[in-house]
Amino acid sequence: MRKGKLRIALFDYGTGNLHSLAKAIECTGHSVAIETNLVPAMHADAIVLPGVGAFGDAAAKLQPFAPAPRQSLSAGLPCPGICPGLQLLLAPTEEGGGSGLGLVPGHVRRLRAPRVPQMGWNDIEPEPDPLFQGGPLVGYYANSFVAEPARGAEVIAWSEYAGDRFPAAVRRGRTWGVQFHPEKSGAEGLRVIRNFIAQIEGA
After folding, report:
1. Using 50, 70 and 90 to split pLDDT, how confident is the model at 176?
2. Per-residue model confidence (pLDDT) at position 202
3. What is the fold of 7-201?
4. 8 A C-beta contact, residue 40 and residue 77
5. Residue 145 in contact with residue 95, Cβ under 8 Å?
6. Candidates 30, 35, 79, 181; catalytic one
7. Is 150 helix (H, G, I), strand (E, B) or coil?
8. CA-CA-CA-CA torsion for 69, 21, 61, 161, nearest 10 degrees?
9. Residue of 30, 35, 79, 183 with catalytic role
């Protein structure tokens, strides 16, 4: 069991407002350090790849530091990736504009729907996983692309949009990725954040 206040590093891609996510994490009683350099972030208790900005911009900002997070996450540093943060955990993408870490096997594809992006609330069907302890939930989405994990990655939640059933969350080891925005999903989203923090506290 971890004791004392945890230090959570929030990677700033420089493309969006991180205030709501930082506040949601701070509500758990732990501290948040917003980092533009991923090298010192690797010394935190966990690192968050947030759900702001376009994939290409985020990939370009991440690329100079890619070996450090790939090695640290593979070694067990806890990490949730949110929306484009999830997509950065994979490598090939139909969106273009760079490549992710390749930590989670698979690729990123465009939603198979007549209208994109998906904007708004959608049901999430969780599989048994500590991240979703507490039952099903509804999450807020803002996305045109989704992860398509390959063998070796575990899909731990599903959603459906316009007949396209896609992974709402994936996991590999102590790395999670969610396609929805827990920081914008009300009390149920905050429960997901608390569940993630609980995994670090209990390590």
Report:
1. very high
2. 79
3. Rossmann fold (3.40.50)
4. no
5. yes
6. 181
7. coil
8. 90
9. 183
User: Is 83 an annotated catalytic residue?
Assistant: yes
43 is catalytic: no
Q: Which two tokens stand for residue 64?
A: 């100079």
Nearest one of 81, 186, 192, 185 to 134, comparing CA atoms = 192
Res 102 pLDDT > 60: yes
State the Cα–Cα distance between residues 46 and 139, nearest whole angstrom.
23
Enter the tokens of residue 188.
């149920």
CA distances from 152 to 15, 82, 91, 171 (A): 31, 20, 14, 9
pTM for this entry: 0.91
Enumerate residues 6+ apart whose C-beta is below 8 A from 118. 111, 141, 142, 143, 144, 161, 162
Q: Where are the alpha helices (DSSP H) in the chain?
A: 19-26, 38-41, 55-62, 67-74, 84-87, 186-201
Per-residue pLDDT band at 144 (split at 50, 70, 90): very high
Does the active-site annotation cover 183?
A: yes
Is 171 exposed, middle or buried (CB count within 10 Å of its CB: 0-12, 13-18, 19+)?
Answer: buried
For residues 190 and 44, what is the distance between their CA atoms, to the nearest angstrom? 21
- What 8-state DSSP symbol labels residue 190? H
Q: Which residue has the tokens 């273009």?
A: 96
